[in-house]
Amino acid sequence: MMKINVITIFPDVMENILSMGMLGVASKKSLVTYNVVNLRDFAKDKHRTVDDEPYGGGGGMIMMVTPIVEAVEHIEPSQDSPVILLSPAGERFDQSLAHRYASCEELTFICGRYKGVDERVRKMVVTEEVSIGDFVLSGGELAAGACIEAIVRLKDEVLGNEDTRDTDSFEKDRDYILDCAYYTRPEEYRGHRVPEVLVSGNHKEIEKWRKMSSLRRTEKLRPDLLKRKS
Ligand code: SAM
């Protein structure tokens, strides 16, 4: 069973995210186990402080090295398993990274807050740094949640039939192109009809239409993916 550790100052938020939808289903099916660690349990004072002012001055607070390193030591991540710092400066998280992490037995995520973490955390415990995009959140919890959801849904048996991933966007096997357009009932809504072929029952033609739809959407919305393919 895959083990996912998350170090955070907001364990309740993280527990909620991890009990939601298929993330919760995955743990109920014993496909994954979550271990949410409250960073404040590793603070050294009665106020459970985990941040301090930066050396050299300037605004903002920095997450201290001691509680983070000791939280990781308490977890004892298995040898060679990724210890991932969420950070806007990290490698961009994408579907191929999600696949790599999905093949790991154990993952440990460190959620930053404030101005970020003491640089020594990177040297002492972090093995990889991951960003979910070129923007700045106030903390790593939502970023960790996004990564974990993308990873866990790749595990076999997590998804039911209602949410198949075979045709998902960004999959290498389908040359990174986007998923096709979908329609459901009613067949007509305020003059907008479902494409005729989709109600024809002709599966060969439907398959052809879906491939073409994927390609057209990719050309229009993400032409960079087609360049990546060639
Ligand atoms: N001073 C940092 C910088 O400009 O690079 C930003 C710190 S941010 C306010 C606080 C924490 O939120 C970070 O330590 C990180 O854990 C998380 N975070 C913010 N944006 C993120 C992103 N795009 N991807 C992943 N984590 C992010």
Q: Given the structure, what is the number of helices?
A: 8
As a whole number of angstroms, the C-alpha radius of gyration is 22 Å
Number of strands: 9
What is the CATH superfamily classification of the largest domain? SPOUT methyltransferase, trefoil knot domain
Going across the major beta sheet, what is the strand order?
2-1-6-5-7
Q: Which structural category fits the helices and strands?
A: alpha/beta
- Shape estimate: elongated
* Cα-to-Cα separation, first versus last residue: 37 Å
CATH domain topology of the largest domain: Alpha/beta knot
The tally of structural domains comes to: 2
Question: Strand share of the residues?
Answer: 15-25%
Polypeptide structure, described:
α4 (95-102) links the parallel β5 and β6. α1 (11-19) runs parallel beside α6 and α4 crosses α6. The longest helix is centred in the C-terminal third of the chain and has 19 residues, at 203-221. The strands form three sheets. Strands 2-1-6-5-7 form a five-stranded parallel beta sheet, sandwiched between helices. Strands 3-4 form a two-stranded antiparallel ribbon. The radius of gyration is 22 Å and the shape is elongated. The mean pLDDT is 95. The protein has helices at residues 11-19, 21-28, 65-75, 95-102, 119-124, 141-152, 203-221, 223-229, and strands spanning 2-8, 32-38, 51-52, 62-63, 83-92, 106-110, 128-131, 188-189, 192-193. It has 230 residues and is of the alpha/beta class. The chain folds into two domains: 2-152, Alpha/beta knot (3-Layer(aba) Sandwich); 172-229, tRNA(m1g37)methyltransferase, domain 2 (Trp Operon Repressor, Chain A, Orthogonal Bundle). Residues 86-89, 111-113, 115-117, 131-133, 135-140, 143 line the site of S-adenosylmethionine (SAM).
